[in-house]
């Protein structure tokens, strides 16, 4: 039988070998793990004297586990994280100003169900993006649709969509994600149109979905980003109504690491020099 006929094989057709039909039907039913594993698991079950219901159960469980993994992978891909970071690799002792218990609680993602926001504030290199990425990853693993972007990229995207008359579609897409992460608010001042478009995003998410914002600027300086005091006031009003603030002021982790490395290399060199002297 040719591959072509198996593709169009109607259910209930009795011709062909059972394996070919089974492969066709399992593909049709979107059960790739059952298809991949049924033969191997059948041999294991025969060897161990496992009955048919348990054989089927094993197969179906494998499919479920795989399916969950595929969903999480898809969510992570759709979130467009610039890097994969988790709390496992985050050193809380490096940033004493950060409330560790709060971060661990947020990683449980109940704030997303409550449509609350998170704002991480602090100077550069203190792990704001790391924590935002880790919370985003946790949300994907819990099954929430997530989108990661920077303030500058989001504004650019919004302006482009507006020029191409597809702003409403983009706004709807942004509303559909349960967790929107807007990184690096404050690095670049926004144009009046950019500020207004960003305001609209936050405004549309208000009490509908969670947003995480990271910024190097304290709230009192946000007017310098948005240009208008009135707009900044209205934005902060919505964003901070249900909010968890992460205070992340401290030494730059990057700087500390590189100076640490430099010190280490210098002392290595000194030791080597001593050894060769
Ligand atoms: P910020 O966004 O605050 O400027 P980042 O999150 O980009 O800082 O951190 C800079 C780099 O240092 C990243 O590679 C990040 O993973 C790492 N980093 C920062 N803080 C920590 C920390 N406490 N533990 C582990 N890695 C950290
Ligand atoms: Mg950052």
Write the layout of secondary structure elements.
Blueprint: H1 3-7, H2 18-28, H3 32-48, H4 52-79, H5 100-106, H6 110-113, E1 117-121, H7 128-141, E2 146-150, H8 151-163, H9 167-176, E3 179-185, H10 192-205, E4 210-215, H11 222-226, H12 229-239, E5 243-247, H13 253-276
Parallel strand pairs: 1-4, 1-5, 2-3, 3-4
Helix pairs in contact: 3-4, 4-7, 8-9, 8-10, 10-12
The structure holds adenosine-5'-diphosphate and magnesium ion.
Adenosine-5'-diphosphate binds at residues 85, 89-91, 94-95, 124-130, 253-254.
Give the radius of gyration. Answer: 26 Å
Which band does the percent of strand residues land in? 5-15%
In spatial order, strands of the major sheet run 2-3-4-1-5
Based on Cα principal axes, name the global outline.
Answer: elongated
CATH class of the largest domain: Alpha Beta
> Which architecture name of the largest domain does CATH use?
3-Layer(aba) Sandwich
Order of helices and strands: HHHHHHEHEHHEHEHHEH
What is the number of domains?
2
Task: Give every kind of bound small molecule, once each.
Answer: adenosine-5'-diphosphate, magnesium ion
Number of helices: 13
Instruction: Report the uncertain regions.
Output: 1-7
Helix content: 55-70%
Q: Identify the CATH homologous superfamily of the largest domain.
A: P-loop containing nucleotide triphosphate hydrolases
State the secondary-structure class. alpha/beta
Mean pLDDT: 90
Largest sheet: 5 strands, parallel
Count of DSSP E strands?
A: 5
CATH topology of the largest domain: the name is: Rossmann fold
What's the N-to-C terminus distance? Answer: 79 Å
């Amino acid at each position: 039988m040719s591959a072509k006929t198996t593709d169009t094989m109607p259910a209930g057709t009795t011709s062909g070998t059972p394996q070919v039909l089974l492969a066709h039907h399992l593909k049709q039913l979107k059960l790739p793990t059952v298809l991949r594993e049924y033969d191997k698991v059948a041999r294991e079950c025969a060897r161990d004297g496992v009955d048919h219901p348990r054989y089927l159960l094993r197969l179906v469980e494998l499919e479920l586990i795989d399916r969950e993994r595929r969903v999480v992978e898809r969510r992570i891909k759709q979130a467009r994280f610039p890097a994969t970071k988790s709390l496992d690799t985050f050193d809380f002792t490096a940033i004493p100003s950060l409330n560790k218990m709060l971060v661990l609680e947020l990683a449980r993602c109940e704030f997303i169900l409550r449509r609350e926001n998170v704002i991480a504030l602090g100077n550069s290199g203190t792990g704001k993006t790391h924590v935002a990425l880790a919370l985003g990853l946790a949300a994907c693993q819990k099954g929430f649709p997530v989108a990661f972007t920077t303030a500058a990229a989001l504004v650019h995207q919004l302006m482009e969509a507006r020029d191409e008359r597809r702003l409403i579609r983009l706004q709807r897409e942004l509303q559909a994600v349960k967790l929107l992460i807007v990184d690096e608010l404050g690095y670049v001042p926004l144009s009046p149109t950019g500020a207004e478009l960003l305001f609209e995003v936050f405004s549309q998410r208000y009490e509908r979905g969670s947003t995480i914002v990271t910024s190097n600027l304290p709230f009192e300086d946000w007017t310098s980003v948005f240009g208008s005091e009135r707009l900044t006031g209205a934005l902060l009003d919505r964003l901070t109504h249900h909010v968890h603030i992460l205070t992340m002021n401290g030494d730059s982790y990057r700087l500390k690491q590189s100076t640490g490395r430099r010190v280490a290399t210098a002392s290595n060199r000194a030791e080597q020099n001593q050894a060769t002297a």
